[in-house]
Amino acid sequence: MNLVNLDYESKLRQDFLDFFNKAEYTSKQLDELFHLYCNKINKQISKSKYKVFMSKELNKDTKGLNNIIVKIKKDFEKNNINLLNKRLSKASIKEDKNDLLLNNWGIYHLHLGSISKNKFSKRTNLLLFIKIINNKVYFLDIKEHGNFSSIDFIKIMHNNWEEEIKLFRVKDFTNIEPKLNEKEVYKFWKLGINAILTFNDTNDIEVAYYPIGGGVNINKTSTLDTYKWIGFIKSLADIDINLNSKCYVRFNSQDGTLYIENSNNEILYKMNFNEL
């Protein structure tokens, strides 16, 4: 991208490199660093006061885990995000590891074991699968470790909260093929291919959905992050038109704010990274 007054790469790239502090990243391009940062923050549950909803399926069969489910529900409602993030996979803090379930369907999985100070939750075979939309958390189901491409998750969202995922529903379709099973879905994910799901709902009506988390690129990173990068670049082009001197883009990882500043370090524009 050719901008007249705005150097959007040099200082911003260094800010990302300082954040990661990994020598092997020094050869990476700015867009790669941008996606790595997105991947890191996406895998963490963000701070907010959440409202929790329980699926009919989970209420019917909590597999004797009522106490821990109630505890997790309260942690969401009381904004105990540090405790909740300790229930995530250990890979959740690794920006170079993709969570295929999260990137494709926007679904987190939480471990249900005890939590000790400064450590992740004890790993458990049974996991709680949840979908977060804005400040609402949907408790979907409890399944064994390994059921990461279970079509049941999409069925549960459709049967319980269809309105929340209507944006991703395939409309005016007939006889979509192939009708994928869970193993086939996961094979597609491993190849970085987005899969349309078809199934019969509780009224025995066939429905179909695009990936309700936005889907992935061929490198298995989030498509939504790619849109974020494109939107970011377009916004810089709009800002550049209004500048009349040399300026730079900086990033403050402490508060997630992007700054446009001039050569005297005066801040001219601010952007919230999470709102790109």
Explain this structure.
The chain has 276 residues and is of the alpha+beta class. The protein has two domains: 6-41 and 222-275, no CATH class; 43-209, no CATH class. Helix content is 32%, strand content 20%. Strand 8 (247-252) and strand 9 form a beta hairpin.
What is the gist of this entry?
With 276 residues, this protein is of the alpha+beta class. Helix content is 32%, strand content 20%.
Name the shape in a single word: globular
Strand order of the largest sheet: 1-8-9-10
Strand content: 15-25%
Q: What's the tally of helices?
A: 9
Mean pLDDT: 94
Return residue spans where pLDDT drops below 50 for at least 5 consecutive residues: none
Main sheet record: 4 strands, mixed
Radius of gyration: 21 Å
N-to-C CA distance:
18 Å
- The total of beta strands comes to 10
The count of domains is: 2
- Percent of residues in helices comes to 25-40%
Query: Could you spell the SSE succession in H and E letters?
Result: EHHEHHHHEEEHHEEHEEE
Give the structural class: alpha+beta
Task: Supply the key terms.
four-stranded mixed sheet; single chain
Topology at a glance:
Layout: E1 6-7, H1 10-20, H2 30-42, E2 51-54, H3 56-60, H4 66-77, H5 81-85, H6 100-105, E3 107-111, E4 126-133, E5 136-144, H7 152-161, H8 182-190, E6 197-200, E7 206-209, H9 223-240, E8 247-252, E9 257-262, E10 267-272
Parallel strand pairs: 1-8, 2-5
Antiparallel strand pairs: 3-4, 4-5, 6-7, 8-9, 9-10
Helix pairs in contact: 1-2
